[in-house]
Queue: 2 jobs
Job 1
Amino acid sequence: MSLKVVISHKTHYKYDRAISLSPHIIRLRPAPHSRTPIEAYSLKIKPDNHFLNWQQDPFGNYLARLVFPEKTKEFCVDVEIIADMITINPFDFFVEDSAKNYPFEYKKDLKHELKPYLKIEEKGKLLKEFVKKLDKKEKPIIDFLVEVNQKINQHLNYTVRLEAGVQSCKTTLEKKLGSCRDFAWLFVQVLRHLGLAARFVSGYLVQLTADVKSLDGPSGPENDFTDLHAWTEVYIPGAGWIGLDSTSGLFAGEGHIPLACTPHYNSAHAIEGFSDKCETEFFFENTVTRIFESPRVTKPYKDEQWEAIYNLGFKVDEDLVKNDVHLTMGGEPTFVSIDDMESAQWNSEADGEHKRELANNLSRRLLETNTNGGLLHHAQGKWYPGEPLPRWQTTVFWRKDKKPVWKNPDLLADMNKSYDYSIADAKKFISTLSLILGISDENIIPAFEDPIYYIMKEAELPIDIDPLKYDLKDPLERKTIAQKLTYGLNNKVGYVLPVSFGISKWITSKWEFRRGHLFLGAGNSPIGLRLPLESLIVKPQVELEQDFEPDLFASYPALGDYISAVEKRAKKMSKKTTLKNRYSAFVRTALSVEIRDNKLCVFLPPIEKTEVFLDLIASIEETAKRLNLAVIIEGYEPPHDLRTDRIKVTPDPGVIEVNIQPTSSWKELSDNLLSLYEDARLCRLGTEKFMIDGRHTGTGGGNHVTIGAMEPSDSPLLRNPQLLRSLITFWQHHPGLSYLFSGAFIGPTSQAPRVDEGRVENLYELEIAFSQIPESGDVPYWLTDRLFRHMLTDITGNTHRSEFCIDKLYSPDSSTGRLGILELRAFDMPPHSQMALLQMLLVRALVSCFWKRPYKHNLIRWGTRLHDKFLLEHYVKEDLKSVVEYLNDEGYEFKLDWFDPFFEFRFPLYGMTMINGMHVEIRAAIEPWHVLGEESGSQGTARYVDSSLERLQIKIKDFNEERYVVTCNGVQVPLTKTEIEGEYVSGVRYKAWQPWSALHPTIKVDTPLTFDIIDKWNTRSIGGFNYFVTHPGGRSYDTFPVNSYEAESRRINRYWDFNHSQGEVTPYEPKITGEANSVFAVEAARVMTSRTGSKKLYFHEMPKNKEYPHTLDLRQRWIKK
């Protein structure tokens, strides 16, 4: 991300007569040590008749000395600064071992040099008392500085003082009030009393409006702001001068641009000088203006860009409606916690307490913002091999006709709260519910844990284990045993009511068991999942036939008002405990009620029809209202019905996944996505995750896009199989579509491999399948599935792991697999909702194009070009350019720069520099990681991924290939000329670190990378730069970046725009040795053998790789020939 601003500062004095001015000193030029890069500076003075000399004071600050030979009626100082507001991490510094903890002593020589900054100027009683109250116990120096900075910030109140000068510490402490310069001077004196060298800083403070309002504390100014400011710097051995702004209580960052840093504030005045006595009018102006903003994850588009994107969506909609496409789109965005980047539940594990808490918060918010009287339903989710328990699933369910399913959301219990309910409440609830349903409560059965099972399990425990105690480290089964034994095996766990809907009303029947009681299966799942159904009578005299597979291709009447019907029925409810109703049919499904985790849980039986489900839910709410009991609705899901809609919130490894409802219009789709991202943010869920080195990875969970229709029979993919062929062919022709939007892990073993990344014969077989699509006439629904099911898989035949997944198109498995839906699984989760919508718009526009005119072309055999050219940003952008041109030709005015945020996100800039008029930049490229062979691990057989190989792109402009060559670590880079004169590009593959198990374990690490531009005529390197995969100073990060700013600062620190190789060039292959590093720790050490007594730069040119001509593979250097 790059953001450049212009600071304009004007100070104007007007005098009532012509007066003489003494020589003036101006301290309004950024100091040489400013960490914020200053790209341009201008100082204009009036009157024009003056002399100006630039000087430096004893402390290294710039100052302009002005002399005015004539009298003047005005004096004006006009300053303009262009600054690059790169992200600066104020905590990114080292501290010498001797100064890691406070208190410490400066070394003798250093203390002598710091003498002016240790001088105590004020010794008042109030100041001494303030210092005395500070906690001076030994602690890390950073913690100590944060603490003192906060103390001053909290002790004083801020005010704007227009009077000249700085208050004494005594005045500031007496008033507990001061301006920024008063805060800063007090801080200087406090630090000196504490034995720390400190200096006063005057400079510019630039504060830019935040793109997104903060969830914690103030969000900063409403408008971009700059002004003169003052703060403090303290000298810590190893770290140097550290900026501390006690006015805000923060450390100084990129917005603090120092002008003068001095031991005393008297030497830091912005303007200093004298004039004759006169009447003076004083004017000043200080503004900051943004002049360049690269796309960033918090604001990917300018307002005018987004307006154009949004309006284009409606144009595409017009064509979709006009051409009777009936397209709907949904998706599966994923989110991560913004507070926890470290724990397993937000990295690799599917479940976790914090994840459940945030998912519940998000579900309740979605219920509020997306529905009118919707229902929150909790169910068992998928159960994957290797996971101890099935995953959970929360569904927000509502009616499309906007009539309520559940009126009072307060009666839906909050999963994050505990309620003071007892087993008696469960009994009362299920008894009342049965009467409201109009059935007898005499068939309600208490449920018990099976004592035989748990007594046997208790007997199996080791003799030194107390069966009544457990801790978090105990195995899940042992915890369960202890919990059950503690509760008591003779106590009722809950109640079960056999219930089903007959022909026109609810019915029940008696359940009888050989053992006399209902004993549950072992475990801690809801009792509705542990019922001993296999112990029920096998062949009753009469049993209702039920079919729980909905026919989604049938048509259904409009839904009625079931809440009013239930309320009416409840008024006529018999007050008798038992209704003398007898039913001849046997009921095999049951509703159960229990108190679990201090909440009253109602487990729903499987239900065949939506009308019946809505009646039952209305009855449960009526019961909850009468008894004033909040309930958790769980159990079997609501029936699939096109008259209802739902959003599912589920866990996935490292993320929370949200399955959003499909919508037919661009307006609905954009409203839903924009609302979802905001709801997630307010629930402290975000879309950003970072690697330890600062690289952006998205959430890691994907953002799958689904396309279909409101009714499966209307699906454009089933009605016209040529649409699926067109999408597959177009994506295969444009690898940029696969790799620009994908996650970090690509290739044949990824979650969504391209059709040409798996089996080599797949394209040949696909072309045969394409030929079998009828050119005209009605197409049977099953044909699309049968033609492509065995083509759209990964190399193991997994139909789910494919770039185009047709599992839900017309699967023979079940009705839920015959939804007419195509899932595009290669889309990674973009960090901003507007970026997600551009992805959606791209797919909508292409569907519209292919519906009008199918895209029928032969497939391209890319071969190794796929993982050579198209993993570099330059060639992906060229490919996207041709996609944009195709859409423009079809009448959809896409712009290539709309995809810039994706390029910045997928191929972040590492660094750029100018060398002898040539502009050089390096940025991230994609590297397909290899899945290694099976190895034994602690959890059994495992397959590791070798992520030690990385790739970057180097691009150079205004390059003369006749005279210069570019080398990386002494090897010539095979540059390829682009369409622009003088521009060349190449990829560089390198081994970044040494894992314990790798594809090539004997090949050493290549980093750090040293790039040189070598002048062949003068046989010297004329400049170069370094790229590191870890902190160049050896700093090892213990935690992941907390946000995009820290991540960006880590990336910036790993690039040096200097440090070329030294010596005269000799075309000779050096002998290189490398020490392998541990994971992300110490970089490889290199030794270049040179002739004794001479300084030589050796480089050699390797023959161009015929398979990967666009990429230099540094591993080739290690091949023994």
Note: The longest helix spans residues 303-322.
Job 2
Amino acid sequence: MQQQIAGLARARNATPFMVVQAALAVLLAKISASSDVAVGFPIAGRGDPALDALVGFFVNTLVLRVDLEGDPTVGEVVAQVRARSLAAFEHQDVPFEVLVDRLNPTRSLSHHPLVQVMLAWQNFAGQDVETVLGDVSAMALTAETHTARVDVTFSLAERWTAAGEPAGIGGAVEFRTDVFDAATIEALVDRLAAVLAAMTVDPDQPVSGIDVVDAGEHARLDQWGNRAVLSAPVPVPASIPALFAAQVARTPQAGAVTCDGQTVTYAELDAASNRLAHLLVGHGAGPGHCVALLVPRSVEAVIAIMAVLKTGAAYLPMDPAHPDARIGFMLGDAAPTAAITTGDYAAHLIGSGVAVVRLDDADIEAQSDAALPMPAADDTAHIIYTSGTTGTPKGVAVTHHNVVRLFESLDIGLSLTPGQVWSQCHSLAFDFSSWEIWGALLHGGRLVVAPDEVARSPQDLHTLLLTEHVAVLNQTPSALAALTPAGLQSVATVVAGEACPAEVVERWAPGRLMINGYGPTETTVYATISAPLTAGVSVIPIGLPVPGAALFVLDKWLRRVPVGVIGELYVAGTGVAQGYLRRPGLTAARFVACPFGTNGARMYRTGDLVRWGPDGQLQYLGRADDQVKIRGYRIELGEVQAALAALDGVRHAVVVTREDHPGDRRLVGYVTGEVDPVDARSLLGAKLPPYMVPAAVVVVDELPLTINGKLDVRALPAPDYLDVDRYRAPSTPTEQLLASMYARVLGLQKVGVDDSFFDLGGDSLSAMRLISAVNTTLGANLAVRTLFDTPSVAGLSRQLGSTASTEEVLPVEILSTGTGTPVCCIHDGFGLSWPYRALAARLDCPMIGFNQVQADGVAAAGSVHEMAVAYADRIQAVSPGDAYRLLGWSFGGVVAHEVAVELQRRGCTVERLVLLDASYGANSIQSQDVMTESHIIEHVLRAGHVEVPAEAGPISYDVAQQLISDRHAIDVALPPKQLVEAMIRNVNHNQTLMRSHTPGHFGGDVVIFSAGRSTGDFDRPHSEIWRQFVGGDITAHTVDCTHHDMLNPDALGSYADRLASSLRGDVL
């Protein structure tokens, strides 16, 4: 090899080092999927003769940047390396630190600023250290630093015999063990040797012709990718109606489809679809034609789909939520012979020229329910439109065989058995729905259809899953994240449609079967399905090929890439669709010849970037083009951009995806010209489906460009997602709380009360999250549709029944704003957190009050522990995170301690727990009497200096109103009667809870402020009372006041600074 390298170097007027540099650049380009490669190399730095006799270290680092764009030949790469190396030598005296300073790359503590790979080369032929240093005695030692300075360093040296003959090339590789393992580095060295061998054999070949995958790895990739299926005999295929007919014969009276309490049997579904099919045949439905469906998810929709398939025609699903413009395009492009609809949806078809069949048409019942001839397996089953790069959607034609093969020999731990209950939650225009429908109906299962309003409400969907005993749940990861897994332990969960975050797997995988699927519409729902997922894994695989599919991860020259290397995924096999309806050119570009199968085999170019994991499963990494997936929908940015550019007043437009907050990807449009951003989004909403409308449109003076004339995406400004000129601040506690929840869900700094949730970038999935948070935090029972009707903070506030009154009582309210971790203040014995408002001016952190407000129909807590569990839920809903500060006075301190115990049990950190004169148990209750309305009213009157006659006896609410009027005490206001009643109910209930309460054990530190002038049992040192229930330190302070004065302004003046320091964690 050494001699072959030297021969190539001589032939190209280069050095062996330059040839090895070129080989390393080619290898790095192939394993990094990048044509732009930078390699560092050390140079002695002794170009000045004055340094010859000077002992010292003058080594500098040079950077060689190699451009492999355009598939150059080996000889051209060597020539490029030679020219750039010589140019680098000319500037070898420039200190590397100066180069870094001038280039000013983005700094990172995790890697070198300019290069991550180094190549050191030694070529002193026939010389050793003693010869070099003459009379000086020297010995070479290896420095065991155990520290890698860059990701990988190749230290190579040419070896020579005593006679000066070549003896090979040897060396070592230093690498970061947190990035690579030894096996990976050994494979890298073998690949480098293979590249050098190929380069020296044929210097005129293009670098694309060099294969870095050896024979053993090729065999492994063949096995993982299921290549054998391309040459295996194809079983006799069957159509969907044929398989369904066989199932009807087996279980005619079994339940087939359930929706809104209605269930039809297999026999009823068969007969109803036969009748509709006969009517459709009369409208020209048959093989080679299609029938449009404009119906919501329902039993009738499933009957309509089956009827269309029985005619031999393909069904063309159209979502009723799509704008008329898109529905009109699909009708014009697909040219269906008829359109099936129901109810008010028929209005969307007026003027289309398509025959309309209404599902409530009396003529359907008059048709025969006899079976029709079975369609062929190669007939088209459905046509689903996806986003198009040119701004025009494209219809994907999928055959019966494409669908049926999905379930053949499926071995994922999910049994397809009779009676199994499947959910159907997705739009019929989303190909995920065909997996849901046929997974149930072709195997004797029961399909539970979730109506739109149920599917969009996590609470309602959860209830439906439990009520119907659903066994197989199919969801996108975003939708699954909004659901709670509680009570669904026996539900097998299938996620697909978008990348699945690890946190979703952490919540859902334990205790149940959970699998992750992947597949473009062009490969019929799934091309891969993962092995059962487990928690604790950071990379969620998309899995192995489904039956009948063959997978190939290729580079741009259609060569297979090694394991772990990024490439584009190509899918071949029986799931590959027919192509795009009436788009032969586009079909030919995406459905290409497969070089790995028999003659005539095709494979689909997905445009998705993936890599093989060491376990043989694929890992999804993103898109190779401008196509993106957001919330399960595949979107061509070009289509959205074309629609935006077509608006009046827009000169130039571009649409990009932004992830300004981790995990929250959004479309954002940027335009130049004269256009109102709000109007632009509104106009796009009339042309595009909701999921394709940008979350924000930003007007800029000009679009930023790079020096190469390309769009500089990084220079585009971040959108505000709100109109600051129209901002109106929240004015009530309800509005403040709602605005904070809007901001948190949308990832904004602030939200005004008039800002629309959807104009700020909200969508249906984030709407579910918001309503779930509102219902959990405020004890409300809002439906998701409420937000669509009243999307502003002010509007939603009115739906909660709140008013502008500052006295309204909510389960949670913002007591004060500020910075840092909020202090969660637990209500007193009356169930109110209002007394803590006196602290607002003395603390610089946010304060959130938790009040004792019972939701309708929900039983009161049966113990302090039950109350603490409920409040822990509220706290985590209001302030998601894992660190909390808790404050409680009196009874609130007892509850705060129990909340701290519960939060610790959940794995959260309680940074601070501060108790204000809090004790527990029966001895802490100063009065054994039942509290009445009169007690509270007398207290209010005396506090307002209204004299209460001694002979008055118990004072009712009405008598108190009369006393205030008689005394002309205009500054005195009684609490609302309902509030008084709630306070009485709360304090009596809480006294009952206290008598039987034994605190749990809290493992952290506690700070206690005790009232020095308390009477009775309150004189016991609180630090002694709480000691057995606190694992950490207890810091105790005494305040010169009574128990009831702890939060009065005078008392606070004496200890507020110490309280603030305690909440900050200062050492006192």
Note: The chain is about 30% helix and 20% strand.
